[in-house]
Amino acid sequence: MNTQPSPNSLKIAYIGGGSREWAHKLMMDLALCPDLAGEVLLYDIDMDSARLNEELGNWIQGQPGMHSRWHYRAVSDLKITLADADFVVISIQPGSLELMASEIALAESHGLFYPVGDTTGAPGLSRGLRSVAIFKMFAEAINAYCPDAWITNYTNPMSICTRTLTRVAPRLKVFGCCHEVFATQRMLAGMAAQFLQIETPPRKDIQVNVLGINHFTWVNQARYQGRDLLAVLSDHLEEKGSLRFYTQKEVESWNDWFHSADLVKFTLFQRYRILAAAGDRHLVEFLPGFIVSPESLFKWGIIRTPVSYRISRWEAAPQKIRDWISGTSPFVPESSGEEGVGMIKALLGLGDIVTNVNLENTGQISNLPLQSVVETNAHFSRDSVRAVVAGALPRAIAAMINQHITNQELIIDAVLLNDLDLALQAFINDPSNHLPIDSSAALFQALVQLNRDFLPVPEMANNRVQNAYAEAK
Amino acid sequence: MNTQPSPNSLKIAYIGGGSREWAHKLMMDLALCPDLAGEVLLYDIDMDSARLNEELGNWIQGQPGMHSRWHYRAVSDLKITLADADFVVISIQPGSLELMASEIALAESHGLFYPVGDTTGAPGLSRGLRSVAIFKMFAEAINAYCPDAWITNYTNPMSICTRTLTRVAPRLKVFGCCHEVFATQRMLAGMAAQFLQIETPPRKDIQVNVLGINHFTWVNQARYQGRDLLAVLSDHLEEKGSLRFYTQKEVESWNDWFHSADLVKFTLFQRYRILAAAGDRHLVEFLPGFIVSPESLFKWGIIRTPVSYRISRWEAAPQKIRDWISGTSPFVPESSGEEGVGMIKALLGLGDIVTNVNLENTGQISNLPLQSVVETNAHFSRDSVRAVVAGALPRAIAAMINQHITNQELIIDAVLLNDLDLALQAFINDPSNHLPIDSSAALFQALVQLNRDFLPVPEMANNRVQNAYAEAK
Amino acid sequence: MNTQPSPNSLKIAYIGGGSREWAHKLMMDLALCPDLAGEVLLYDIDMDSARLNEELGNWIQGQPGMHSRWHYRAVSDLKITLADADFVVISIQPGSLELMASEIALAESHGLFYPVGDTTGAPGLSRGLRSVAIFKMFAEAINAYCPDAWITNYTNPMSICTRTLTRVAPRLKVFGCCHEVFATQRMLAGMAAQFLQIETPPRKDIQVNVLGINHFTWVNQARYQGRDLLAVLSDHLEEKGSLRFYTQKEVESWNDWFHSADLVKFTLFQRYRILAAAGDRHLVEFLPGFIVSPESLFKWGIIRTPVSYRISRWEAAPQKIRDWISGTSPFVPESSGEEGVGMIKALLGLGDIVTNVNLENTGQISNLPLQSVVETNAHFSRDSVRAVVAGALPRAIAAMINQHITNQELIIDAVLLNDLDLALQAFINDPSNHLPIDSSAALFQALVQLNRDFLPVPEMANNRVQNAYAEAK
Amino acid sequence: MNTQPSPNSLKIAYIGGGSREWAHKLMMDLALCPDLAGEVLLYDIDMDSARLNEELGNWIQGQPGMHSRWHYRAVSDLKITLADADFVVISIQPGSLELMASEIALAESHGLFYPVGDTTGAPGLSRGLRSVAIFKMFAEAINAYCPDAWITNYTNPMSICTRTLTRVAPRLKVFGCCHEVFATQRMLAGMAAQFLQIETPPRKDIQVNVLGINHFTWVNQARYQGRDLLAVLSDHLEEKGSLRFYTQKEVESWNDWFHSADLVKFTLFQRYRILAAAGDRHLVEFLPGFIVSPESLFKWGIIRTPVSYRISRWEAAPQKIRDWISGTSPFVPESSGEEGVGMIKALLGLGDIVTNVNLENTGQISNLPLQSVVETNAHFSRDSVRAVVAGALPRAIAAMINQHITNQELIIDAVLLNDLDLALQAFINDPSNHLPIDSSAALFQALVQLNRDFLPVPEMANNRVQNAYAEAK
């Protein structure tokens, strides 16, 4: 951002401006915030979506209860979008949802059943590969057109995308946001209500110390008004008599494709004495032993989110917007519960906040490698984001996370150094992947083919991977 | 050892003196060495075996071609064995072979098919647990009765046993010996002969830079007279046209239960660009994806060594000795090819050597944790063993090894800190273990029961492990 | 503190409760704070002073403009003072002011002219030695009687005293407070007013990133409303034409014994490109080349604070109190400008703050050793103090600070391990000490004699130190 | 070197081939070695000296007792010298002896009395600055013309010169050699003879563990046939009754300008419990408190080597050579006692050796920064030099060395990054420099002027240094 941007005439560059989830949340939160005004440029390779968001954003200004005046504009040129922006928001779909579906299906055909598929494991690492190529381009553009802007990334795989930006252009000011920890705070708030016989406290009042990597983040201290909520949880779990597994039928009856039964989370808590802060659907993708069959997932209460559901939701979104604008369905102004606008305000000097974000490790987690992107609390103040020291992870967890961080770096190196073999090493070493090396290599090769259009040197796809393993005897 | 032990009146304390493999090798090599003399005290909980070795050791002195004069004595008291010893050799079977068989069978009943089962994976970690308890006792005794002695450990699990000694008594002078790397040198010597059209060079002339942990050690530089043997290997593997998998029938026809087809080793070499220095039977126990079925092992040319074979070999050994002594079968004096006696000579100032051993990491591998036990070359000179700096491992390999080192430390902590939960964390995190947490915990619990007699606080076996995983919803 | 202390019935244990500076500041700030109430126990080896403070504290409650109700009580028993305290405040004079005067005079007689003498250099390290012995006793008592209390240390040498508490009792919750950085913020606020043509901003609005060790702390980022104040300072210094040294006469005419001319601070800024955040009187004690003569100090505008002035101020203090109570001189209620009460409120959950404190390094400064006590910003919230990551120091500064940290650890070790030789190593290595080893040892020996009553093993004072340096030729 | 150089037709490139000390030693040792033959190219900017060495080298071949056949050739072109060389030897005088004299005199005029002036302190760092510029050029040339050659550096400042080579061209194979440790081994051998009542053992039989940086290296283990020589030294020093200082008259009567009385060495040993392995003349240049006056040096028995002596020795050298060749003075073939030729043989596969050298830290000293050039033992074998792990330095010594390493890196950065301010930071931070910042800056500026012809951007000499220190009040 300019050294002294005026809160009344900000420029926000939105990469992925046709977004059908994060863009709407931002619009709503901006509209409800009386302190800021300016323009939001919506850049997208899908200009129809960007234009619809432009229409919605501008329409919202006129609705009752809205405080701010913002101008939205769809732009097809990245340079125009970024030029002198104060803030850049990135929330893209790296590749199509159909591609995502193919990746997950390919993994499934090799016996790997990922419930989400956007962060780690074979489909997540595959998505990571193309994301590095895409974010490299973003980093170069931001560095050229608005190097002083603050960049918020919402795109998954979070760690790989966020790290790519500063690997490519080290001076960029970047942080990555994810609401996964909020759900854990809500769970703890509910537990506090139940076991301390109080009203359910607001999420933000659950004080947590966060440490780990995105979607595999942990909480080693959780308190509400001085009460130790991890001790409460521990006592409660000790009391319960038996492991309560789920049946396939039960789980299939749930009607929320993003449901987490928390059985994995609680089991990990008992084994490692620290609370995982992401949903079970994410957790099992980082661990050995779970994604081996649909039955194994059902047993633990884990639903695999069908990409077809994501696609239909995505396809239905425009009509929902049009219905609001036409008055066919009522428009209810409501805060998103996200912290993005609060962060912008803090960066403008309008009130410090402390919340969890993804940043390069500059010391906040003492037993993970420096410079890897980690998730902890951070202090936001005027033009400044500084991590709060979170301390050290338990040894057993640190070793697992270190393996995942190594894999992320290998994926980034594979693209930036044009050496796909490094990506295959990440696939083989992935803890959720129980395939022998030859099967991993075959799956890898198929995934690389799928991503051929995104990889900088298409020939890489053929490079060495199909070489046979020979016997020298 | 005493500050200035005389090579002519050494005292060697042999813990596991009834050993039917390493003890005989040592006897032979001592007998062939004209520079040393003294006495060897053979301590064992199996006194019959120790007494037979006493008989054999003393008998060998009188055979033709034997140079040295050593006195062997079986001793049932550890204090007498150790008092003022110059050298301590430890080669024990931690627990019976029957117990080892049960461990491997238990793992198999849970779907984990370990070919060796003495180093890592469920049976190796289980063996590790009891070994910590046993080696703690050895460390305390050595520290009390001969704190200046040099200690050579041959017992598996090598890293856990060796590290336990200095965890318990930091000033002890310990190194661990394993001949696994020698086989890789021999393989390279054979390859040099074939592809460089030369006579097969002696193993010791294959210059290797060794780095890793025991049975998962690597070679990133191998040369014969200046020729880069890893480049030769690489060229050769590139030439070959196809991956040559094995059938069950083929493998079963091999008549060597310790055979390595090197297919895993070569595949790893192609993927990670560094040569694993242990046999395939060991390698697959450190990796995900292999031990899932006997078929999967056969395909890669891996035989599972039957413990029954170990038992029958063990049972047959005494008769072999008696046949030598009685003259029924001819006794052929022959060097063992091991380096133990060469090390003793170097430590006495009779000629420096450089060879690979297991030592605490004091800097020799820069990207593994300090103090973990690692395997590299070391320089042996008078009363001194110092590692040679081996450098850094490739990132992907370092992350895997770091996971194994963490697991080893958790196993040691579990016993030394009386906290068996830490051992369960190691089981869950073991890369070869593809079981979900509940199955890992069940297998763990069964293995702990098996080891009940060895664990310092038997109640530990019931502690928390069978607690249910509860659901707090 | 108790897990949930009530802000209306707090117990504060004040060690050094007869304090004539910090105690009065705390009393006033507590009296002006409407949110807290409770009792303050004043422990001191000088019970007269403690009783006078008791009288003053209780008297203040009745004065106009005072909000809170606190009860003050002088106590001669440390156990009673500490039992179940919620907060412990430590501000003692370690040894008498006369002892301090002797230390500084002794150093002077060896050619070392320290302006302050309470932090580092020969007198500061000497004071450190006895402080370790004293704080060891405090740590043990707090650990026994109120292990959950939050401890604020104000005593110098700050780093040594603070670190001793957690070296002795690792679970104690400790931070150290110093207002030295505030003066730098005020200087920057004044500079902002002058060069940006604005009203002088309040100190707290000068946003600084603090990193270093107490009295040798640095600021690598300073902003007011987005304006980079270090750039303003740099421009201004470039403009000025010549180095403006001071004459002895000029400096002697200054009537403030604590004056800092900032000439050293600005020179360091030009050389190292980072702003020292302590006054020049402190800075020169950490650096080579300054304390060699009074002339050298005068030239740089540095006054040596006479201990005689401290003594007379100290002696005059009781009458000042009596004059207030008797009405002889008017009592003006006024906030101290310190942050102690704000910290207490934050720890009780009454409003987060971020301010600079001294804490063990858990990652906040990435190129100083973990666990050393460093000064950075920290986030205070309910029952939680967590450092904000400050990043890395410039290499040249980090090396100097690392030398001082090593010396501090050697001083602590010397007392805790009963090995005074280690303290002599610290004396020799002190950067401000330009004496050769023999002179350093003689000065050291004399200082140890002075401190004989405080050192745990009085014989230490004779141990080896006076041993001659021999020549073996 | 070529992968498989033939010991019978080696090419050695000698940079500084006109050398009047190291070149003669090498010639002699090569001539006495029957195993090697080839050609030595002598490159020098002083071609007369190179040609005289050419004549001498070739003449030596014909003398009685000489084994080898080597051809010497003076070459004025660096490219021709280096092309395809197997070994490169660098022993240059960076700048003239007159320049060295001026540096030392300048420092003296500021009150800094350096006895040697070629390693550290103001003159050593100044020499370092120009050496970086010169060695940068060597590194680029070697990298272009013989990147596989092994490079031996003998030039001081050793650490700065050696590190510059790999900073500029990381793949170069470099080690630095210095005989300073040998003198300590000889001292220990003499002590062993005296106190153990034995014949003086050969230097090489004194087994030492070396760790530190060149000319400030330490020995924490020294043994002869198992006897602990540091314990012998310690006992002996305890016995002696009084510190034996020297008078100016005594010292001036010594007729060896390189004499070391070892009084500093032994005093350090008593204070830090570890033996410094360089002569006192070097040691005092690394320490505070010594170089403040000639009297202070005399007292400790330290002679300042007059550069005029070096110059006259240098000027007399050619006549000595001509006298040999003409037969005027007898030529006595004698080994130099250096290890250079032994190292070459080891690198050719003709016999491993372990000796002390200067190498980048890849782990050999665990508490000094990785990649700094440190001195430890190393194992030389065919085409391989690997450091032997030396362990950790005592904390107090490590902190001092870390300061010197930081200064060395700042000197290198100053030239490679064209930022002379960094070099001034090194000057100010130098522990031997007791000047205040303004005097340090003035001396620095004068030294930079002296070196103007060597620094890559002459304008640097004016850059900022003479800027005044301003006062912003």
Beginning-to-end CA distance, first to last residue of chain A: 63 Å
CATH topology of the domain at 95-118 and 178-305 and 338-473 in chain A: LDH C-terminal domain-like
Biggest interface between chains: A-B, 65 and 65 residues
Helical content class of chain A = 40-55%
Shape of chain A: globular
Class inferred from helices and paired strands of chain A: alpha/beta
Order of helices and strands of chain A: EHEHEHEHHEHEHEEEHHHEHHHHEEEHHH
CATH class of the domain at 95-118 and 178-305 and 338-473 in chain A, named Alpha Beta
The whole-angstrom Rg of chain A is 22 Å
The CATH superfamily of the domain at 95-118 and 178-305 and 338-473 in chain A appears as AglA-like glucosidase
Which second-level CATH architecture of the domain at 95-118 and 178-305 and 338-473 in chain A applies? Alpha-Beta Complex
Briefly, what is this?
4 copies of one chain form a homotetramer. Chain A has 473 residues and is α/β, with parallel strands linked by helices. In chain A, 44% of the residues lie in helices and 15% in strands.
Task: Give a structural overview.
4 copies of one chain form a homotetramer. In chain A, α4 (97-109) packs antiparallel against α17 (437-450), α6 (158-168) crosses α15 and α15 (395-416) runs antiparallel to α16. The relative contact order of chain A is 0.13. In chain A, β8 and β9 form a beta hairpin. Chain A has a domain at 95-118 and 178-305 and 338-473: Alpha-Beta Complex (LDH C-terminal domain-like). By secondary structure, chain A is α/β, with parallel strands linked by helices. The first copy, chain A, has 17 helices and 13 strands. In chain A, the strands form 2 sheets. In chain A, strands 7, 8, 9, 10, 11, 12 and 13 form a 7-stranded antiparallel β-sheet that branches. Chains in contact: A-B, A-C, B-D, C-D. The B-D interface holds B 3-4, 207, 209, 221, 223, 225-228, 349, 352, 354, 362-366, 370, 377, 379, 381-384, 386-392 and D 3-4, 207, 209, 221, 223, 225-228, 349, 352, 354, 362-366, 370, 377, 379, 381-384, 386-392.
